[in-house]
User: What shape does this take?
Amino acid sequence: MYVQEYGSENSVLMVFIHGGGVSGWMWDKQVEFFRSKYHCLVLDLPEHGQSKSGSTFTINSAAAEINRLIEEKGEGKQVCAVGFSLGAQVLISMLSLNPTLIDFAMINSALVKPIPFANALLKSMTFALPLVKIKAFSNIQAKSMYIDAAYHETYYQESSQMSKDSFLCIMQENMAFSIPSGFADARANILVTVGEKERKVMRDSLNAIVASNPNCKALILPGIGHGFSLADPDLFNKTVETWLASI
Assistant: This one.
């Protein structure tokens, strides 16, 4: 798994786990903000970004690999992990596999409830997959995901290079995910966020996550859809900073 490190190794460890279809670059604004005070690890999940030629992606295997990385890099230090969408599902799995490893966890827009007509939706997305190779379509999609224009080319290159098999694997993992039983035992302080403009299934997912662990705190973000850290990086960074300072 491709990993980039920033900041002082003597500082609190902060691990960033990106969403599906993008890679570690989605956290650039967060790294810029936090690297002076934290030891930041930014990774590319399997079949994404610089890890696209590595192992096959599954949520559980990615979670286990990141936990091993945290054990190596975070020994004797406090650990904060931040995940978005697919990466937030990975983070839930990480907390479930090792309930005492992470001290602070921010779960952003994690799907944990079944999507109605998931098979039909996946089929329609598969038919639309060739469209990502058209730059104009890619740019429209990037804008809908709050991706800054400076990253449109990076997003286009990465998404157009993703194979159909990788896409199906990732989407099936995403749509089939549910909260593991071990999540109830996680000791971390957990902040769970969702955008006010996200689909109802995402808000229902937030409620399910919060109900599954007494250490969870919920935050619904007014006027924001799927992609808090990209939609308003300054607010995201201040939210994380304030949350960590309040604990």
In short: The two ends are 31 Å apart (CA to CA).
